[in-house]
Design a protein that fits this description.
The complex is a heterodimer. Chain A has one helix at residues 3-19, and strands at residues 22-27, 32-37, 43-48, 53-58, 64-69, 74-79, 84-90, 95-100, 106-111, 116-121, 127-132, 137-142, 148-153, 158-163, 169-174, 179-184, 191-195, 200-205, 210-216, 229-234, 240-245, 250-255, 260-266, 271-276, 282-287, 292-297, 302-308, 313-319. By secondary structure, chain A is mainly beta. In chain B, 46% of the residues are buried. In chain B, helix 2 (91-107) links the parallel strand 1 and strand 2. Chain B folds into 2 domains: 55-187 and 311-392, Rossmann fold (3-Layer(aba) Sandwich), CATH 3.40.50; 190-307, Rossmann fold. The N and C termini of chain B lie far apart (65 Å). In chain B, helix 5 crosses helix 6 (216-232). The chains are: A mainly beta, B alpha/beta.
């Protein structure tokens, strides 16, 4: 009697494991991380974390999810098997966004209240360096070859290109007002920086340390001051960029070869950060004001579904 | 607190202070000027060994001095004992902004210094301004009341300077008394009244009972309320003047008298949805709440207020500003600290972007399409060309929490939604308007 249901349960688990991945979403206002199954979009668990969780990444070995708990001044480390916070890493004041190198060793954290980028050793939690940047650092991206880190400082309106080995700032590049997010393209040849109040995206050549292109967005019926680019995500082949336009409640789809906007996809309110499914077919956006997650099909560029998560969803990370 | 985090926070404090001597050293190495100008250099801690190597600052090639021109006015203590009687409102915001300007400047070879020129009570601030202008200064943050601001701005020597007014509310300074060399950072009475009116109309609280104090400023604000009512379809169903003599803010048995006085003041009025109080002088406004004859909410200068800044505001990275301010000053950031902070950031933004600190170039840039400044309101803020007032969203706040942000949904404008607040171009009586119009048609 008892064996049969367990057998079915096991089978169903195996069945899911082939395609389903696990989605982690930080809920800034709830102090939780929602965990969803990508197939069913049903909640698996809601994990209590530290105060004001925002930035979230998964380690390259997929064993840990790192969450910036801004008001606790540390990173909460979630074990992706047990779905529990297993340790904390002290980050210094107000961590907001973070990235991890592709070896999974060094964590780069923007200390928003403090004007520093803190470099942490993942294994020991030790502070390796504190790199002084501008006021209100936020965006953080490690290059695919782990040689460079791009950061932004919102109140200084700058992108900072940092040597990921010496931890020295190579260049401070003035961009438009309140840069929020920096992302290396998958080939590592460009850094895209979104300026929330400026309403533009600057494309930076990280070798030449120069802006090579800057473009804005025009959405019919939406006032220019409400066009505020935020999160940036590239398709796996690097041909498309998705830029969340927070207050316009849309995703802009940009052709990375021409920098032209191909489409605007209407989703939930105030989308900020996004993550791509491991197979690159779906994009998940965290929508702060509607408290939901929207699934966008990358092939058809259609918003397929929105599912409720916690309050003020902020960032997304995905485990295959 | 874990020990490690305690050590970390200690280290943070050390490095936070560490920046001050660095800046001061750089500045002293520049053009000769009095050491009293800026940077609280006290309690300088040596850089600890754990301090990370800093990237060498670029050599400054453009040094920009911003003068904070103020006067020690005899301001009454706040009516509520809950509010601290703060004497350094404004300048503390400017000090933080100059650090931020320098954080940016340092990375691009620019340097900013703040000259604090605060005249004593009763002094002739125009004479002080004359000296500063003669010394070649042209960028001023004006923490001055309207008569002093006009006295300074009207001087022939001041015509090529730029004054960022971060203090006045007076509508007349945006209208007939506007000046080409004065830009206004904070919202004036008309903007505040419109911001509040939009919210009240959105709530369908359209019947207003207006209570006005006895000072000219109270009447100025009341006039803006009457204008807002007619603009947005509200109705002033009753109006009265607060004619009681106000007492000192501290009395041992004061509440009994007030408890008797406020119902008398508010009784026998036509049906109203809300009491609007115009008490700029802060003499009685706080007494109205919970004491009116009818159980009605209170808005205006007290109760529900329309402000540029409030401690309860946290959106659009406002939290970071609140935290930065409190960490540095040990007190809450007031509206005047915010407008001073914003004024210094406006100058910084203009000079960082153009690399030119000539006052004429700064003025042109502030009026150009290229200019915008961020101030935690979720959108870039720009100046109206017709009266040089900064257009901005306005916070609607209760005593302890943010209630809303105006403009409200549905109040439309062909160009900027924020131009539904205050004097739009067609209503402007500022003589500068015709000049801008002529320039635009050229």
């Amino acid at each position: 009697m008892k064996l049969l249901p367990i057998g079915i349960l096991l089978l169903s688990c195996v069945g899911n494991a082939a395609s389903a991945s696990t989605i982690f979403i930080t809920n800034e206002k709830d102090n939780t991380v929602s965990v969803l199954d990508s197939e069913t979009l049903q909640p698996i668990k809601t994990i209590p974390v530290g105060k004001r969780p925002r930035g979230i990444v998964i380690t390259p070995d997929f064993k840990e999810v790192l969450v910036c708990a801004g008001d606790d001044n540390n990173l909460d480390v979630i074990d992706t098997t047990t779905l529990e916070v297993v340790r904390h890493i002290d980050t210094g004041p107000d961590p907001e966004l973070l990235d991890i190198d592709h070896k999974g060793q060094h964590i780069f954290v923007a200390n928003e209240d403090d004007g520093y980028v803190t470099v942490l050793d993942r294994a020991t939690g030790k502070v390796l360096s504190e790199i002084e940047v501008g006021v209100e650092p936020e965006g953080m991206s490690v290059s695919p070859d782990d040689k460079l880190v791009a950061a932004t400082s919102e109140a200084t309106s700058m992108a900072h290109i940092i040597d990921a080995e010496t931890f020295e700032v190579k260049a401070n590049i003035l961009v438009d007002t309140r840069p929020r997010v920096a992302r290396f393209t998958p080939d590592g040849k460009q850094v895209w920086v979104s300026a929330e109040v400026g309403g533009t995206v600057a494309v930076i050549d990280p070798e030449a340390l120069k802006i090579i292109k800057k473009f804005g967005f025009k959405i019919p019926g939406v006032r220019p001051e409400l066009i505020q680019p935020m999160g940036i995500e590239f398709s796996n082949d690097g041909k498309l960029a998705f830029v969340a336009i927070g207050r316009a409640n849309r995703l802009a789809v940009v052709d990375t070869a021409t920098y032209e906007v191909k489409d605007y996809i209407l989703i939930g309110q105030r989308p900020w950060h996004m993550a791509l499914s491991p197979d690159g077919k779906k994009l998940y956006t965290a929508n702060g004001l509607t408290n939901d997650l929207t699934v966008v099909d990358v092939q058809s560029l259609k918003a397929e579904r929105s599912v409720p998560v916690g309050r003020l969803p902020w960032g997304v990370a995905i485990k295959p | 607190m874990r020990i490690s985090s305690f050590v970390r926070s200690l280290a943070t404090r050390v490095r936070g202070i560490g920046l001050a001597p660095l800046l001061l050293a750089v500045m002293l190495a520049g053009a000769g000027f009095a050491a009293a100008e800026t940077a609280p250099a006290a309690d300088v801690a040596p850089m600890s060994e754990a301090h990370p190597a800093e990237t060498p600052p670029a050599k400054p090639h453009l040094v920009t001095a911003i003068v904070y021109l103020g006067k020690d006015y005899n301001e009454p203590a706040p009516l509520s004992l809950v509010d601290k009687d703060v004497k350094d409102r404004g300048i503390q915001g400017a000090r933080i902004a100059i650090e931020e300007d320098n954080r940016t400047g340092r990375l691009i070879g620019q340097e900013y210094k703040l000259l604090e020129a605060i005249a004593p009570t009763g002094a002739d601030v125009a004479a002080k301004a004359k000296e500063l202008l003669a010394a070649g200064h042209g960028l001023f943050v004006a923490d001055l009341e309207a008569p002093d601001l006009l006295a300074v701005a009207n001087m022939p020597e001041a015509q090529n300077a730029v004054f960022l007014d971060m203090r006045t509310n007076d509508d007349s300074l945006r209208q007939e008394q506007c000046r080409a060399n004065v830009f206004h950072i904070g919202p004036n009475w008309a903007m505040r009244a419109d911001a509040l009116a939009q919210y009240l109309v959105w709530k369908k609280w359209r019947r207003w009972f207006l209570i006005v104090g006895k000072t000219p400023a109270d009447e100025g604000y009341a006039a803006a309320i009457r204008r807002a009512a007619s603009r947005f379809g509200a109705k002033i169903v009753g109006e009265t003047v607060y004619s009681f003599d106000a007492g000192s803010r501290r009395t041992d048995t004061g509440h009994q008298q007030i408890q008797a006085q406020m119902p008398m003041l508010t009784q026998g009025v036509a049906d109203h949805d809300i009491v609007i109080v115009a008490d700029e002088a802060d003499i009685f406004g706080d007494y109205l709440m919970f004491r009116t004859a009818e159980p009605r909410p209170v808005a205006g200068t007290h109760g529900l207020v329309a402000v540029a800044w409030h401690r309860s505001f946290e959106e659009y990275a406002g939290t970071q500003m609140q935290n930065r301010f409190e960490k540095k000053t040990g007190r809450v950031m007031t509206e005047r600290d915010y407008t001073a902070w914003l004024a210094v950031r406006v100058f910084g933004e203009a000079v960082v972007r153009t690399g030119n600190n000539n006052p004429a170039a700064v003025r042109n840039y502030l009026l150009s399409d290229a200019f915008e400044v961020a101030g935690f309101k979720g959108e870039g803020m720009t100046f109206r060309t017709w009266d040089q007032q900064l257009r901005q969203p306005i916070l609607i706040a209760g005593p302890r929490a943010l209630v809303s942000i105006s403009p409200q949904e549905g109040f439309l404008h062909p160009k900027y939604l924020t131009d539904t607040l205050g004097f739009d171009a067609p209503e402007s009586k500022c003589p500068l308007k015709s000049q801008t119009a002529a320039k635009e048609s050229e």
